[in-house]
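INFO batch 0412 | record 1 of 1 | parsing
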Amino acid sequence: MPKREEYITWDEYFMGIALLSANRSKDPSTQVGACIVNRKNKIMSVGYNGLPSGCDDDNFPWERSGDEIDTKYPYVCHAELNAILNSGARDLEDCKIYVALFPCNECAKAIIQSGISEVIYISDKYADSVSVKASKRMFDSAGVAYKRLSGTHETLKIDFREENI
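INFO prediction complete | emitting tokens
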């Protein structure tokens, strides 16, 4: 019997982990996950956008507009930074980070400082923002590669029902 041919690529697998992690986010408007992987295709860390540990999700705002102090923006930790912080001080030199949304400038700084050498993303919908333009400028200067995910599968299905295993 020949091996199965429709398996997912490493990039699809790790992006799938990032997307699954995003489902832990309590943010009602934007859920982002990140997965950091070393050169041997071992997962070093994962993260998703949310409040810092110890901050009750029910006691902070999730609004996108209004008085800045009453929006989510001063409080939410982005998926990329959470994944870096969740790594337990592991060496992330030459790792890749998989994230659905192209990183903002603040996350780009953390990615560069941690030694991550490549960013794989799905969407660059904020490409015209100052934040993403700054990210790309810093990545280019620091030699951090970035590429849009290219794979053969458009969707993956996760089924928790026992009868389908």
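INFO post-check: The mean pLDDT is 94.
INFO record closed
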